[in-house]
Amino acid sequence: xxxxxxxxxxxxxxxxxxxxxxxxxxxxxxxxxxxxxxxxxxxxxxxxxxxxxxxxxxxxxxxxxxxxxxxxxxxxxxxxxxxxxxxxxxxxxxxxxxxxxxxxxxxxxxxxxxxxxxxxxxxxxxxxxxxxxxxxxxxxxxxxxxxxxxxxxxxxxxxxxxxxxxxxxxxxxxxxxxxxxxxxxxxxxxxxxxxxxxxxxxxxxxxxxxxxxxxxxxxxxxxxxxxxxxxxxxxxxxxxxxxxxxxxxxxxxxxxxxxxxxxxxxxxxxxxxxxxxxxxxxxxxxxxxxxxxxxxxxxxxxxxxxxxxxxxxxxxxxxxxxxxxxxxxxxxxxxxxxxxxxxxxxxxxxxxxxxxxxxxxxxxxxxxxxxxxxxxxxxxxxxxxxxxxxxxxxxxxxxxxxxxxxxxxxxxxxxxxxxxxxxxxxxxxxxxxxxxxxxxxxxxxxxxxxxxxxxx
Length: 456
Hints:
Blueprint: H1 9-20, H2 22-29, H3 34-41, H4 46-55, H5 58-67, H6 70-77, H7 82-90, H8 94-102, H9 106-115, H10 118-128, E1 145-147, H11 152-162, E2 171-175, E3 181-186, H12 187-192, H13 199-202, H14 216-226, E4 230-234, E5 240-245, H15 246-264, H16 273-276, H17 284-311, H18 313-318, H19 326-349, H20 358-388, H21 391-421, H22 426-454
Parallel strand pairs: 1-2
Antiparallel strand pairs: 2-3, 4-5
């Protein structure tokens, strides 16, 4: 049973710290879960957090560091002594220790590594040698590895003895004499099997596995597709290196989703992905830098819309009513294109759409846009008749709505697929350009249709 702090934990922690010191706070916090301890420490300033963290047992302090967000960790990692950090990292799984080490400045990293054991240093350096977005950075190495010649009874005895040394034990990985992965046995299958059966008789030999260089998002998609709890990681010779677990990949999916949302909002991700995870992390100037580049680019691109209006100023002066529907057309076109972009980007992310499907996707979106344009065109025709009492203007608007919707959905389908072919993140390339491009080209279609149908 866990206990929470009383009604106002922020005031209680501060008051207790001022009155009785960090040791008293640490004693009270030890009744809480590490996640709750982290939340309680968020109420304190940086120096107070350091005082309390130093008073906590190292194993608890390590969990608190791991549970905090980027801003919380950065406030502590630069202030805690190297010896304390080395002890804390030693209490964590090596892949999590390497993650925390990456968030320290280079000088502090060197001090922490100097205070760490040679074995930990070697393992963390091996993890850091993997690409930043690869599963090698997340890989759990302490897993149950067994030989296929063992019986079920012998394997169960091994599991009982080795449980304390393993980070995860949902599956057992069957290796040959050269440590190559040959099969997987779930713990459930092991418990239900005949004690005299050998692992080679009950193991699953069709194993989905990845290399340490595999991108995390690709691994997350595999786990989601096959409903795995863990995914084995092997080297080029098929030797088992470790596994990447679903809980770590869920964090990856959340982070990737955050990055995609930022990109779709035309906000550059910046160099520090962890910083983007928190709204409050980073200075206002950092937010301005991330947003200004895209806004400037879109501002320049948006000038094409003004040029289209300027080019057709004579037609606008001749039939003033045409200007009434400009916001309606560019807004509808932009929204239709954005819907197509979001749908196609999602399909690309889930592997449902591949670049070779480009023609099918464009055709599907074109038909979708055409039908949407017809429905909206009828409504636009009725609205134009009420507003202008001109059937000609109404027909121009209806035809333009059909053309703009069809064009917008086609462009919205093509941009992300083209971006992926060019090895560019589709969310980065799609969102900032779709509305601006569709605004200018949609207006061009509108005025060309009006000029042709009205004889301007």
